[in-house]
Design brief:
The protein is of the alpha/beta class. About 40% of the residues lie in helices and about 15% in strands.
Length: about 550
């Protein structure tokens, strides 16, 4: 069976003529007929060329690879137990799932605090991020989690003031930061500003730290969706020319008279703005981290993608040597913007393999007595079971799970429902719950009581959508953790998982399901554990309290 779909996808708005008779290797119709108008990706490429590299329609979608990897997180199962409790007394009246504490603290001083163990990694200059930022920022702030402003936001803003090649004022970046900060509660959560090579040249981090009061900044080495820098589509000639003048790669050249003429006559409708690829060296990385701390950054993060294992080794070793507060590792397959479609499907190390290597490398650092940064893993996470698995697979080093597409989806749905309420056009599927914000959003009563009527009315529906989605994840995760008798995150363990196939066991280092608990089982049969003395698998908590302070 082929693991990939080739030559036809909803992402490229293409399909085969013979849906039932497809060559597995090429994706072509078994009979390619002279006279076909070209519905497949090859055919569409014959008249739209490079435009078909990217998912469509741009600006209103997020995208994720269709490739079926040989292994993924579904090849692991969560292990529950009927014995004991960790983090609360082993008392049936106290060891209840609402008692599970999901709060996580990290950073060199352990003062960064999130109510929930997840974060939205970099969402940058794409329209889908900008158009939903109100819901994402306010929802994240109310929930007390993290949100990262991704690459190129300042550079893409037509209202940014740039003098001598440096940003001195912005509209969009300032709005994104303040929407979060103005709704942050009790110091929970964080707004993070990311920087790629273009942002570094524009001095975005310095501006964010000095002018916007941002405490958390992130360096970027790529992402799970693609092997190159970020891209977006530009439908305005004037904006394309502005970005070209700011130093971006813009294709085709918007200052070329022939290109201008072709655009004005409708030969093409969109320019492409590309970012450059970075050139990582230890020396430049060390200098960048030192410079950020001199600027006043309180916490410095690093985000890397699904590059080859040696690059993952560089990321975690450099993060250790230079005291990075959070390392995010994003597995192949997903994106929030305009990642090249075939690249998304065929490039990079898949999440389960990448995160398994990450744990191996973290253990190597720990066993040699070196600092291990707090780690976040990303790559296709959407629900509480996957969050549990990501935290357990990487325990005790993984503190957060990164999610982007699913929070965007929740914010978009919330926004759409809000608009449908205003327009009195609720679909039956939603209307059966009611016809108002308070009736439809199950968290509305709680928030209205907490904030009061006036403040609650100012919360946008997109933020309610995200907040409510997060509330579901939190309750689901508490239930799973209670079933495994883990009542705080510090007790999460790789022993909470079992591999369903020998292949998954070999890759992850998680025992095959038929091999789990062998020693504990022998102890039961030998009479050593019949009284429920915490002899269950998962008690082997070696490393659960591994320190991650920066040295």
């Amino acid at each position: 069976m082929s693991l990939s779909r080739t030559n036809t996808s909803a992402a490229t708005l293409t399909k085969n003529r013979t849906e039932g008779s497809i060559v597995p290797a090429s994706g072509m119709c078994v009979t390619c007929v002279d006279g076909c108008i070209g519905m497949c990706e090859i055919g569409k490429s014959a008249f739209r060329g490079h435009e078909v590299i990217y998912p469509q329609p741009f600006g209103v979608i997020t995208t994720a690879a269709e490739k079926e990897y040989p292994l993924d997180y579904s090849h692991l199962n969560i292990m529950g137990t009927a014995v004991g409790a960790f983090g609360v007394p082993p008392d049936s009246d106290k060891a209840i799932f609402p008692a599970v504490n999901l709060e996580v603290r990290f950073g060199h001083d352990k003062k960064l605090k999130f109510r929930y163990p997840w974060i939205i990694p970099g969402i940058g200059s794409t329209d889908i991020a900008k158009n939903n930022w109100e819901g994402l920022a306010i929802g994240s702030a109310l929930a007390g989690t993290g949100l990262t402003i991704g690459e190129n936001v300042a550079g893409m803003d037509v209202e940014s003031v740039i003098r001598d090649g440096r940003v001195i004022d912005t509209v969009d970046l300032k709005r994104r930061v303040n929407l979060f900060k103005d709704h942050q509660r009790d110091g929970y959560g964080a707004i993070i500003v990311q920087s790629n090579i273009e942002d570094s040249r524009l001095g975005v981090h310095q501006y964010a730290i000095e002018k916007l009061g941002v405490e958390c900044v992130e360096l970027k080495w790529g992402q799970g969706a693609k092997d190159i820098g970020g891209e977006v589509k530009i439908r305005s000639l004037k904006k394309a020319q502005m970005l070209y003048e700011r130093g971006y790669i813009v294709l085709p050249n918007p200052t070329d008279p022939n290109v201008i003429n072709a655009f004005e006559h409708g030969a093409f409708k969109e320019f492409e703005r590309h970012s450059r690829v970075g050139m990582v060296t230890e020396e430049s990385f060390a200098q960048a981290v030192a410079n950020l701390r001199k600027m006043g950054a309180k916490y410095v993060f690093l985000k890397t993608g699904a590059y080859r294992p040696v690059d993952l080794a560089r990321a975690i070793v450099f993060s250790s040597r230079y005291g990075i507060d959070l390392l995010t590792v994003d597995g192949a397959g997903g994106g929030t913007g305009m990642s090249p479609w075939r690249m998304m499907n065929e490039w990079g190390v898949p999440p389960l393999e990448l995160h398994s290597l990450l744990h191996q490398y973290a253990m190597r650092l720990h066993t040699s007595g070196q600092y291990v940064p707090a780690i976040a893993v990303a790559g296709g996470f959407t629900f509480e079971d996957q969050i549990f698995k990501g935290l357990a697979l990487g325990a005790p080093f993984v503190k957060l799970v990164g999610m982007a597409r699913s929070p965007i989806a929740a914010a978009m749905v919330g926004k759409t429902i809000g608009q449908a309420i205003q327009d009195h056009q609720l679909p039956v599927y939603v209307e059966r719950f009611g016809d108002s914000i308070d009736q439809i959003f199950v968290t509305a009563a709680e928030l209205r009581k907490e904030f009061g009527d006036e403040a609650f009315e100012r919360i946008p529906p997109g933020a309610l959508g995200l907040y409510t989605y997060y509330e579901r994840l939190a309750q689901g995760l508490r239930q799973l953790m209670a079933g495994s008798r883990r009542f705080t995150l510090e007790y999460m363990s790789r022993d909470d998982l079992a591999a369903l196939t020998p292949e998954a066991a070999a890759v992850s280092g998680i025992p095959y399901i038929m091999d789990v608990d062998k020693e504990a089982v022998d102890g039961i049969f030998n009479g050593n554990g019949s009284h429920g003395k915490a002899q269950v698998a998962g008690v082997r908590m070696a490393g659960s309290h591994i320190p991650t302070q920066r040295t």
